[in-house]
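Sequence of Helix-turn-helix domain protein (Aeoliella mucimassa).
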Amino acid sequence: MNTSTKMLNPPQIAEMLGVGVAKVHGWIESGELTAINVATTSGGRPRWAIEPDEFERFKRSRSSTSTPKPAKRYRQPAGVIEFYK
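Predicted 3D structure, token representation.
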């Protein structure tokens, strides 16, 4: 962990992405978003901190890049010969 960077918390990430805090917690629990538990006591409620670099990686992994559709291929009817193309 780089101590010179400011860590993000789930409410900040939820606000940036326009989702609920529960959704961010779900990403953390599923392992999609890597977070560090910075709670002072073990066994209690976790306090999650996310590095900005990890947040950028997460955003890149979830961005949608549309693939171009393949060109439609038209089948020529059987028995038809085209002389002029």
